[in-house]
Amino acid sequence: MQLLLAIREHIDDPHATKQERLQCLWSEYGEIARYYSPKLGMSFIAKHVSPPNEVKHPRGWHSDVGHQRKLRSYQIEAEFYQSFAGLCGHDCYVPAFLGLLKDTYNPEQQTLLMEDLQSSGFTLVHSRVTDAHIKTVLCWLAHFHGRFMHIDISALWPVGSYWYLATRQAEYTVMPDSALKRAAQGIDHRLNHARFQSLLHGDAKLANFCFSEQKKVAAVDFQYVGRGVGVKDVMYLLGSCLTGKQLQEQHDAYVDYYFAVLKTALLSPCSSEDNQDWVVELEQEWRELIPFAWADFNRFLLGWSPEHVKINDFMQRQTAQVLSLYES
């Protein structure tokens, strides 16, 4: 009731109501709920963060480091919506920012208010993927990466994605000694010091994309948005959608599709030849980094959940390709 009163005061509508809880946040850190404002004549979403006194991690991973990372992720997400969401166009649609409520007495709590995508026509979340779904999301990613290529994003994560090495030392420590563990620092450095960097979604799985009947798509969940090479998002999307066999058969075609859209997003019709050169160089660099992206995520999974279904033959082959460079 206290939260509802705070929301009513923030939007200046004493008759606003909570319609339904949509989901709990990871490890019961809060909830996402739909509210309705008669005064505004619309529904909206509230993402309320209120960490429990005792955290229960689904896989048994919990520490103060993990707790602080999670809190920081919600602060980063709020910053993204406040300062960057408005820069996204229809080709990389995200919910509009409506407000941020902070608790003066409890700095760990916050409530992010944003557009209700369902009321904007994005009513479909797919659990079974099709070729069209993958291409639609790849198109979104290409436009998102293109949009933020030359924009200061230092207020967000210094490295986009939830698995990057500096924030996953506990998982790295429990890895058994291996060629991948020994090469992990080098792989991380190669990805993070690439010449071309943009803004990554950071958790680009299919479940974080909402589709419309008109085949448009919008993205949610920007807790791990930050700097990086676009192929990290591409790798994570394809790995979340496809089996090892499907990856072997379709991976390269999807990568080609992503780069074709990215090139279109980066090049305007009046681009000079000099401007086009850097786009060619970007594609060359990012293509070379694809196996590094796979190896980097493999490193995280081997520490976090070594029996994970995503550790398939395709991922292992990509990793072996990278490790051969360090062994020679």
For the structure shown, list the relevant keywords.
single chain, alpha+beta, Aminoglycoside 3'-phosphotransferase, Chain: A, domain 2, five-stranded antiparallel sheet, two-stranded antiparallel ribbon, 10 helices, globular, EcKL, CHK_kinase-like
Question: Any overview of this molecule?
Answer:
It is a single chain. This protein is an alpha+beta fold and about 325 residues long. It folds into 2 domains: about 1-115, Phosphorylase Kinase, domain 1 (2-Layer Sandwich); about 130-325, Aminoglycoside 3'-phosphotransferase, Chain: A, domain 2, CATH 3.90.1200. Helix content is about 45%, strand content about 15%. The chain contains 10 helices and 9 strands. It has helices at about 1-10, 65-85, 130-145, 170-175, 180-190, 230-240, 245-265, 275-290, 290-305, 315-325; strands spanning about 15-25, 30-35, 40-50, 95-100, 110-115, 200, 210, 215-220, 225-230. The strands form 3 sheets. It has a 5-stranded antiparallel sheet, with helices on both faces. A two-stranded antiparallel sheet has the order 6-9. β1 (about 15-25) and β2 (about 30-35) form a beta hairpin. α3 (about 130-145) packs antiparallel against α6 (about 230-240) and α9 (about 290-305) packs across α10. The longest helix is centred in the C-terminal third of the chain and has 23 residues, at about 245-265. It is globular, with a radius of gyration of 20 Å. The termini are far apart. The model has no long low-confidence stretch (mean pLDDT about 95).
